[in-house]
């Protein structure tokens, strides 16, 4: 039995908001495994911020900017830069890690992850032949679907913790060492105080706008973040500020452009924070709404207009979700988002929880029949989600979604054929001495089915999240190690079949549900 | 547009002196006058070595710089 603490490294070569969103993951790891040693790999540009963060045993600051500068320097050649990077990474690479968690959904994070000496890797990496490899469903989702899809409804914070296998439901507040006494800037901030980080509202609020009774601290330098601690409410159009405030348990109203749904991924976390989507055409009405939210005046009867207010809450599984704080119109795309959320939660999440991530199913067997209670998901969407949207729009959206059953059935049939073709492929590569032609034919059949699925996805936008995650696993059918590839191909067809079946069943369930709809 | 600087192969071999792995690494490019980091990254053969991965990393930083993704 070993006594050494677990060595865990988290690779996060993304932006500041992603750094903040990694903190709950560190918190979960330290809560679950207090003796573990956690190293966080981040870009060196965030060194000052990192110094304020408690609870992380060590940082490794990746000198990406310095390396970039050196690449521009004509006096340095490739060997100079090679030696610089080798030396720079030597400390990081000298440790034997028990676990590497790469939350970076870019190649650079995958390459560094592949260089680390680790027992277990979660997240994007590259195998010994340089092929992309993600052996973790939530990180597959992060890389293939969440990053670009308009259908993603998961907060990255939840994706990070689920992918790492350290998801814990509930409020995630991380201790940050920002002391107002030490850093200054908090003088004059007392009761009814607001911290404002939204340049477009500065003038309107200073001019009154009904906020004369409030003390307002305006964000101007990073040091002024210390003032934030003394405020009751943070109003911000900046994701970094909103995230930081919500992580510290301060109430947040995040301001978002009306057609931008990025707040779903990066918005304030925890419960009872707000996102106000506005288009800037009527600042008075925006200020009125802000004031109502701050004063805890009910906005449930606010007419859908230029603004939409979303409230954050934790769903029945403890995931962050944003629902309208007043009835707004639902589009069929919005309905699909909620359905997808249920699908991913069940087909990504429960596999992990069941500890049964890589089991073969018989062809056509529905994984969802075993682990997913369709009725539960239908009931949750109907009672807790659809109830937040206007009646007429919900009926229309559900009716429109009904037309997706037919393409979904086509997708299921293709996934069924794919499972059979992939099993033939596995049989072919498993038996020594099989002819190269047989292997080629087997691959060709899979490729044909891939293409048919891709074409179907091209024709129906709402299928794109399913097809995106499915196709990416087929980056290279010519890798040398065919046996694991064949197994991966089978899994992706199984997943596709399960998810398409699940979606179809939820839509049917919602159409039949006599309650809300 | 992504610009990848070219390096004189002879210079690289000369600079690799004292590091046999590196010298071997670049000797395969003796027939070329110049190579870029893309040439190096695109022509890796067989299983990736540690040296390969360092060069892949340099290529990636170079790409990100070109895309203003720093």
Question: How would you describe the overall organization of this protein?
Answer:
- The complex is a heterodimer of chains A (517) and B (70).
- In chain A, β10 (233-236), α11 and β11 form a beta-alpha-beta unit.
- Helices cover 50% and strands 14% of the residues of chain A.
- Chain A has 3 domains: 7-164, Rossmann fold (3-Layer(aba) Sandwich); 180-328, 3-Layer(aba) Sandwich (Rossmann fold), CATH 3.40.50; 333-512, no CATH class.
- Chain A is of the alpha/beta class and 517 residues long.
- The longest helix of chain A is centred in the last third of the chain and has 31 residues, at 482-512.
- In chain A, α6 packs across α20 and α14 crosses α17.
- In chain A, the strands form 3 sheets. Chain A has a 7-stranded mixed sheet with strand order 9-8-10-11-12-13-14, sandwiched between helices. A 5-stranded parallel sheet of chain A has the order 3-2-1-4-5, sandwiched between helices.
- The model of chain B has no long low-confidence stretch (mean pLDDT 85).
- The longest helix of chain B has 17 residues, at 50-66.
- Chain B has one domain.
- Chain B is mostly helical and 70 residues long.
- Chain B is globular, with a radius of gyration of 13 Å.
- Chain B contains 4 helices and 2 strands.
- In chain B, strands 1-2 form a two-stranded antiparallel ribbon.
- The A-B interface holds A 64-65, 67-68, 71-72, 74, 77-82, 85-86, 89, 106-108, 111-112, 114-115, 126, 128-130 and B 5, 7, 11-12, 15-16, 22, 37, 40, 44, 46-48, 50-58, 60-62, 64-65, 69-70.
């Amino acid at each position: 039995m070993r006594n050494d603490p677990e060595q865990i490294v988290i690779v996060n070569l993304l932006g500041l908001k992603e750094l903040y969103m990694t903190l709950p993951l560190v918190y979960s790891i330290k809560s679950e495994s207090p003796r573990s040693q956690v190293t966080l790999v981040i870009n060196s540009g965030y060194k000052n911020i990192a110094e304020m963060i408690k609870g992380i045993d060590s940082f490794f600051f990746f000198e990406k900017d310095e390396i970039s500068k050196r690449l521009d320097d004509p006096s340095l050649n490739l060997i100079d830069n090679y030696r610089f990077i080798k030396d720079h990474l030597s400390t990081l690479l000298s440790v034997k890690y028990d676990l590497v968690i790469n939350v970076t959904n870019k190649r650079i994070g995958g390459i560094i992850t592949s260089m680390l000496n680790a027992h277990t890797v979660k997240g994007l990496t590259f195998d010994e032949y340089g092929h992309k490899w993600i052996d973790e469903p939530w990180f597959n989702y992060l890389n293939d679907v969440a990053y670009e899809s308009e259908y993603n409804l998961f907060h990255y914070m939840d994706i990070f913790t689920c992918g790492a296998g350290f998801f814990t439901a509930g409020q995630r507040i991380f201790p940050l060492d920002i002391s107002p006494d030490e850093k200054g800037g908090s003088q004059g901030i007392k009761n009814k105080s607001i911290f404002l980080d939204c340049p477009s509202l500065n003038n309107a609020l200073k001019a009154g706008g009904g906020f004369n009774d409030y003390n307002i601290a305006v964000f101007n330098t990073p040091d002024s973040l210390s003032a934030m601690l003394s405020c009751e409410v943070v109003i911000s159009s900046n994701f970094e500020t909103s995230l930081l405030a919500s992580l510290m348990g301060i109430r947040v109203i995040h301001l978002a452009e009306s057609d931008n749904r990025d707040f779903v991924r990066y918005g304030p976390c925890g419960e009872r924070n707000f996102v106000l989507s506005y288009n800037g055409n009527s600042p008075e009405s925006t200020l009125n709404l802000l004031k109502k939210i701050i004063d805890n005046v009910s906005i449930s009867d606010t007419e859908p207009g230029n603004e939409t207010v979303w409230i954050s809450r934790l769903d029945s599984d403890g995931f962050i979700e944003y629902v309208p704080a007043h009835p707004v119109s639902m589009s069929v795309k919005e309905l699909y988002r909620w359905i997808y959320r249920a699908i991913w939660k069940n087909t990504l999440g429960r596999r992990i929880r069941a500890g049964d991530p890589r089991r073969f199913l018989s062809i056509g067997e529905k994984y969802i029949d075993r682990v997913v209670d369709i009725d539960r998901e239908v009931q949750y969407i109907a009672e807790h989600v659809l109830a937040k949207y206007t009646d007429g729009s919900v009926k229309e959206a559900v009716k429109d979604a009904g037309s997706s059953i037919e393409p979904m059935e086509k997708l299921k049939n293709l996934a069924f054929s794919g499972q059979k073709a992939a099993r033939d492929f596995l049989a072919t590569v498993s038996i020594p001495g099989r002819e190269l032609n047989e292997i080629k034919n087997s691959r060709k059949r899979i490729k044909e089915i891939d293409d048919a699925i891709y074409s179907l996805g091209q024709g129906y936008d709402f299928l794109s999240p399913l097809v995106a995650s499915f196709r990416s696993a087929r980056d290279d059918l010519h890798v040398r190690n065919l046996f694991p590839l064949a197994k991966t191909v089978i899994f992706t067809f199984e997943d596709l079949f399960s998810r398409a079946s699940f979606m179809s069943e939820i839509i049917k369930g919602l159409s039949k549900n006599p309650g809300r709809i | 547009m992504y610009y990848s600087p070219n390096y004189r192969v002879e210079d690289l071999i000369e600079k690799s002196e004292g590091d046999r792995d590196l010298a071997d690494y670049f000797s395969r490019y003796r027939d070329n006058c110049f190579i870029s980091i893309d040439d190096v990254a695109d022509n890796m053969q067989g299983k990736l070595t540690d040296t390969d991965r360092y060069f892949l990393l340099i290529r990636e930083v170079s790409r990100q710089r070109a895309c203003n993704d720093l």
